[in-house]
């Protein structure tokens, strides 16, 4: 069975006010984070990569990574644009796209097989790719109008930044399946623990709290559901709302609540690395250097 890696990269560089050229190498031979994700996906058995990008970064993106990746694996491009909306809707005063749900929806027509979706600037580790690929090729992803998905389950302690707050999907599971997911913003390290500051104090989390890192195993049929759901999302927006987002964790969490989907949780012990803040780059470089020294990767994968 053919499987695809979908990489959400439409927001790449925007955090620092530039295009792909702002993404600095993190590996010893000039690798960027996406190189490691694609390497791990290919090793796990994925056959194709679909990059979701913006038209304005297309040339830079292909020069930095796309053209050389196409020599290793089949590559296609989807474009997430603010005005890619269903007929009858307009962007109004909005200046940013509508989130991860719209991002994956932009790949309709290109993704016709089970896929794993990831963020471009996150490192997930080898284990999750293997587990998700095994899930996708082992069974049907939709039966009797119920979707069967999976997610990589990370320990919160392995997903934090030393340089500020992060957003994580805080999860609960029952018998190995997702029972609840709450998109939680500004989780930071406070006095050595993970916590969120509130008006009433600090809510602390256990180190082993299960979180989603937006790494989902999904069937191609799910994209049709996203299309219908996007129309409903837009219809329910309050007048003047230019910030609400159509988010995959929220969509999936709602489906689970309504028993329209089940989500197999695939626990991983791997540590996440990412450049949430510019200050994270040095720590990420050190982390990849240690992975190479420990034999997880060769000196060069490009």
Number of helices: 7
The number of strands is 14
**Corresponding CATH superfamily:** Spore Coat Polysaccharide Biosynthesis Protein SpsA, Chain A
- What is the helix fraction of residues, given as a range? 25-40%
CATH topology heading: Spore Coat Polysaccharide Biosynthesis Protein SpsA, Chain A
Distance between the termini: 27 Å
Bulk shape: globular
Q: Would you identify the regions where 5 or more consecutive residues have pLDDT less than 50?
A: none
Mean pLDDT: 93
CATH architecture call:
Alpha-Beta Complex
Whole-angstrom Rg:
19 Å
Query: What is the SS-derived class?
Result: alpha/beta
The number of domains is 1
Give a concise summary:
The chain has seven helices and 14 strands.
Task: Write up this protein.
The protein is α/β, with parallel strands linked by helices. The protein has one domain (4-293): Spore Coat Polysaccharide Biosynthesis Protein SpsA, Chain A, CATH 3.90.550.10. The protein has seven helices and 14 strands. It has helices at residues 33-44, 58-69, 100-105, 126-138, 222-235, 248-257, 280-293, and strands at residues 4-8, 48-53, 74-79, 115-119, 122-123, 142-143, 146-155, 166-174, 177-190, 193-198, 201-205, 210-218, 261-267, 273-274. A hairpin with a 2-residue loop joins strand 6 and strand 7 (146-155). Helix 1 packs across helix 4. The protein starts with a strand and ends in a 9-residue tail after the last helix.
């Amino acid at each position: 069975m053919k499987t695809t890696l979908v990489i959400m990269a439409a927001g790449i560089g925007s955090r620092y006010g530039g295009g792909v050229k702002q993404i600095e190498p993190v590996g010893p031979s000039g690798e960027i984070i996406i190189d490691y994700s694609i390497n791990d996906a290919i090793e796990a058995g994925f056959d194709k990569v679909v990059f979701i990008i913006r038209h304005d970064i297309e040339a830079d993106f292909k020069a930095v990574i796309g053209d050389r990746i196409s020599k290793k694996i089949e590559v296609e491009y989807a474009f997430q644009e603010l005005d890619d909306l269903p007929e009858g809707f307009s962007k109004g005063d909005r200046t940013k796209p509508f989130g991860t749900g719209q991002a994956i929806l932009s790949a309709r027509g290109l993704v016709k097989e089970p896929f794993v979706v990831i963020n471009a600037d996150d490192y997930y580790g080898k284990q999750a790719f293997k587990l998700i690929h095994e899930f996708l090729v082992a069974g049907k992803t939709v039966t009797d109008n119920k979707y069967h998905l999976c997610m990589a389950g990370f320990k919160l302690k392995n997903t934090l930044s030393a340089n500020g707050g992060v957003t994580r999907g805080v999860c609960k599971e029952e018998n190995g399946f997702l029972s609840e997911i709450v998109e939680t913003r500004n989780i930071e390290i406070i006095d050595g623990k993970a916590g969120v500051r509130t008006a009433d104090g600090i809510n602390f989390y256990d180190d082993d709290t299960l979180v989603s890192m937006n790494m989902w195993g999904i069937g191609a049929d799910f994209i049709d559901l996203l299309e219908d759901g996007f129309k409903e999302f837009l219809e329910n927006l309050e007048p003047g709302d230019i910030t609400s987002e159509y988010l995959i964790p929220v969509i999936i969490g709602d489906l689970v609540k309504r028993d329209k989907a089940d989500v197999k949780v695939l626990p991983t012990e791997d540590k996440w690395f990412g450049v949430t803040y510019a200050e994270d780059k040095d720590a990420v470089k050190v982390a990849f250097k240690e992975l190479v020294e420990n034999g997880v990767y060769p000196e060069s994968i490009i």
